[in-house]
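User: Hi! I'm working on a homework problem where we have to compare a predicted structure to a textbook description. Could you give me the structure for the chain below?
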Amino acid sequence: MLSGEFSYNTFASVYERYTTMVGRVAEADETAAFLERFCKGRSALELGIGNGRVAVPLTERGVTVEGIDTSDNMLKLLAKRTSLIKAWKGNIADFNSEQRYRVVFCVYNTFMVLATREEQIACLRSAAEALDEEGVLVIEVRVPDFDGFVDGQKTTTMFVDHENTFVNTEIHDAITQNLTQTLLWFTGESVRRIPERLRYVYHQELDTMAECVGLELSERWGDWKRGAFTDASKRHVSVYRRTRLKC
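Assistant: Happy to help. Predicted structure tokens:
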């Protein structure tokens, strides 16, 4: 298994550059604005906080943000960036916190780094237990897309400019709902290889898993600007609230 820790420790030194090129840094303020409306002056916890791409602008909006990450290198980047955020190394699939938060959030494809259904349910359970009575869990997840796969394999050119080329190779295991992928980053005469294993999840399955740990869907959007979630959406932003435990 290719762990998120391995991947993001390797990725840390170029993470900000990469996320800038693919547009994720530019939308960080939109993400922070979306999350702020749920915080109401209370605290928030980010699962997979990384270098603080979202946590820092959310802190700048007056929210007290804490975070968890498996990557030592990412946590070092966060510490260099700000001293206002308390973050610790931990497994988002199984964590405990005495603090209760108004918002727990997991963005980008971090939830999919948990490569089994059991780990994903455990993450949802830990997140639910960390919410206060009025708290919400916000998860951003990519919508599975299997166009272009041939015999369970796919190669895609993700980004090209005058200096960089991103090529992503993927192998699909339908039984485990796993995508084993490798990003190849060509820059000049060098090549950087970044492997990762993800478990994709459809929104209906995510709702069912959430119900099993005492959460129910409150809102679902197609992006951080609160655009409609439709059949054409490439991702969704789902908001869950606590409810009675159902199973």
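For your comparison, note the following. Residues 1-6 have pLDDT under 50 and may be disordered. Residues 117-130 form the longest helix (14 residues). Good luck with the assignment!
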